[in-house]
């Protein structure tokens, strides 16, 4: 099987792994153990690739239950996932959806081979029975370094962020990013998401200087949180730009500010939200 993976070291212990559709996974390697955060779409042999980067015993944990984060999970004995996202494993595991997502991403990921991919190019779907509940506040000790999981519901009910305190890096996954998708039918309201963002920001205040995400490989400063909170305020006041679009589930939605998917927001601010007009208030 062809290797689709590339990687980039962000610190002595943290490596970003790029998957076939441009999704980013993170490998953190301590003196005694390693932790893989997310397993991508299941295209290619991720396990073999990770084994070229570390020989430490491996724990696998997910930021959330979406198809581009968990469907490489079948290569591993077990994995951690917040139980509130368990419903997504079966909801999103059809071959049509997995292949459709990869083909949809062929152009943005600059990977034209994906336009012809079929289900034979994927690992088997993730087995919900191998999932262990990943609770808010879980800390994985890897020897000299740790990884802390902190809930940030919104994008999905069970979305988690991961703090690497020794590197002062926070991974927000898809839960808070340059285009935070909050338009799916199971997303929390903008009002509830704003409260969760404020709570997480207060809880982790002063513990990180860099924010990394799951798509695009961009890095952000702490300003990302304030920018996304400002979007929530504008959406609630109906003063955002309200750009009409269709989300990945085919639902009509609005983008708070004009953007393109390569360069981000046209006004240069870091955060943005795609949302449903019917799910602003709780
Ligand atoms: Zn997602
Ligand atoms: Zn994603």
Provide a descriptive summary of the structure in words.
The protein contains six helices and 19 strands. The chain is globular and about 50 Å long. By secondary structure, the protein is of the alpha+beta class. The chain has helices spanning 46-53, 67-70, 86-91, 95-104, 190-204, 223-237; strands at 6-9, 14-18, 24-29, 34-37, 58-61, 79-81, 131-133, 139-141, 146-151, 160-164, 169-173, 180-182, 210-213, 219-220, 243-246, 252-255, 259-260, 264-265, 273-275. The N and C termini lie far apart (47 Å). The strands form five sheets. A six-stranded mixed beta sheet has the order 8-9-10-11-13-14, with no helix packed on it. A five-stranded mixed beta sheet has the order 1-2-3-4-5, with no helix packed on it. The longest helix is centred in the last third of the chain and has 15 residues, at 190-204. The protein has one domain (6-275): Ribonuclease Z/Hydroxyacylglutathione hydrolase-like (Metallo-beta-lactamase, Chain A, 4-Layer Sandwich). The protein binds zinc ion (2 copies).
Summarize the SSE layout with pairings.
Blueprint: E1 6-9, E2 14-18, E3 24-29, E4 34-37, H1 46-53, E5 58-61, H2 67-70, E6 79-81, H3 86-91, H4 95-104, E7 131-133, E8 139-141, E9 146-151, E10 160-164, E11 169-173, E12 180-182, H5 190-204, E13 210-213, E14 219-220, H6 223-237, E15 243-246, E16 252-255, E17 259-260, E18 264-265, E19 273-275
Helix pairs in contact: 5-6
The chain binds zinc ion (ZN) (2 copies).
